[in-house]
């Protein structure tokens, strides 16, 4: 089950360029995205209303898309504007369209009630296109229920084990009790690891900074759209980072990770891990992204393997342990938002 009335990331902007057509399944529905000649992006259901040919096998013409089976032409709103051989198209042959907003180098789509699609509800992810930060737009496909990915993000104790040699390192991460706050749409988690002897493995040798360090992960998972925003970093120990003083040597990051369900058992994971230090370095961003990608592949391997076991386990209950507080709040919040949306739809 998915929340419908919220903005999801459908694609990175660079994936929808020129006359290319991008077909992607989102929330169980096959969608075709295309860039109009006038610049904006349109999203239509990837199924011609006539004989159900995929519109993604069609051709962009100006601001429209022509089905290349029998030639119907649809505009960005899904209206049929041309039917070969007729002065005016037959009635009732429009295809479904979806509202889209292009922001932060991403194309956001609203799969629910179009009347509720307010562009001001797109969550702030400006770090992805802010000149004071640098990142590389990246994507991973998951063969897993999106909720297992959310669970993973709400429980960083796994950094000590899954990411022992990459993003994590010290076992003290797993031993740390996070501060957890829950709002009506997000779970916020604050984790401090003070006076760690060493940097996380992926940061060693990146700059002159060495341990001991104070390290932090302060993040929010905004449940509508599954948008994860994280302030993280490492600073020389005792220089006041926990009190808000970020000295010049500190390595500061802002990660944006967004999960869009493809269907019940697959998900799209869009990520950009921005840094605001050494922006003049020609390849630092690429080097960091490669190391972080290595860590994210570790997550994917684990979660996809976990999904297989979950599927074979029927209704067997999972055990609850100390580290599960964050993900339990996340699951509860998602369930309450789903229930609320269902009631709204029933009442409407
Ligand atoms: S299937 Fe598209 S025009 Fe016939
Ligand atoms: Fe992870």
Key words describing this protein structure:
Naphthalene 1,2-dioxygenase Alpha Subunit, Chain A, domain 1, Rieske Iron-sulfur Protein, binds fe (ii) ion, 7-stranded antiparallel beta sheet, binds FE2/S2 (inorganic) cluster, 4 helices, about 350 residues, alpha+beta, 4-stranded antiparallel beta sheet
What does this structure look like?
With about 350 residues, the protein is an alpha+beta fold. The protein folds into two domains: about 5-120, 3-layer Sandwich (Rieske Iron-sulfur Protein), CATH 2.102.10; about 125-340, Naphthalene 1,2-dioxygenase Alpha Subunit, Chain A, domain 1 (Alpha-Beta Complex). The chain is built from four helices and 18 strands. A hairpin with a 2-residue loop joins strand 5 (about 60) and strand 6 (about 65). The longest helix is centred in the C-terminal third of the chain and has 29 residues, at about 285-310. It is globular, with a radius of gyration of 22 Å. The mean pLDDT is about 95. Fe (ii) ion (FE2) binds near residues 152, 158, 162, 163 and 299.
Question: Brief description of this entry?
Answer:
With 348 residues, this protein is an alpha+beta fold.
């Amino acid at each position: 089950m998915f929340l419908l009335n919220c903005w999801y990331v459908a694609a990175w902007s660079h994936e929808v360029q020129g006359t290319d057509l991008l077909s992607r399944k989102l929330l169980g529905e096959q969608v075709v995205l295309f860039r109009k000649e006038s610049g904006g992006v349109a999203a239509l259901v990837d199924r011609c209303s006539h004989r159900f040919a995929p519109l993604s096998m069609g051709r962009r013409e100006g601001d429209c898309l022509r089905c290349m089976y029998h030639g119907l032409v649809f505009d960005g709103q899904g209206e049929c504007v041309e039917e070969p051989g007729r002065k005016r198209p037959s009635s009732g042959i429009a295809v479904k369209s979806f509202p889209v907003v292009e922001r932060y180098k991403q194309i956001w789509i609203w799969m629910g009630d179009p009347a509720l699609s307010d562009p001001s509800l797109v969550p702030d992810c400006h770090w992805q296109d802010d000149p004071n930060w640098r990142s590389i737009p990246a994507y991973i496909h998951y063969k897993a229920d999106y909720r297992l990915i959310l669970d993973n993000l709400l429980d960083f104790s796994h950094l000590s084990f899954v990411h022992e040699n990459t993003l994590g390192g010290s076992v003290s991460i797993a031993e740390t009790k996070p501060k957890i706050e829950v709002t009506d749409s997000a779970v916020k988690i604050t984790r401090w690891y003070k006076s760690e002897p060493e940097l996380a493995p992926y940061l060693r040798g990146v700059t002159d900074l060495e341990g001991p360090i104070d390290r932090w992960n302060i993040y929010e998972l905004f449940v509508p759209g599954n948008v994860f925003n994280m302030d993280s970093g490492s600073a020389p120990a005792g220089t006041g980072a926990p009190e808000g003083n970020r000295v010049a040597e500190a390595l500061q990051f802002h990660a944006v990770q967004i999960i869009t369900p493809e269907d019940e058992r697959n998900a799209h994971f869009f990520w950009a891990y921005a840094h605001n230090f050494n922006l003049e370095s020609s390849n630092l961003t690429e080097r960091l992204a490669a190391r972080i990608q290595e860590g994210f592949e570790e997550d994917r391997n684990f979660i996809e393997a976990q999904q297989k076991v979950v599927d074979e386990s029927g209704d067997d209950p999972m055990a609850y342990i100390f580290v599960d507080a964050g993900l339990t709040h996340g699951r509860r919040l998602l369930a309450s938002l789903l229930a609320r949306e269902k009631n709204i739809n029933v009442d409407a």
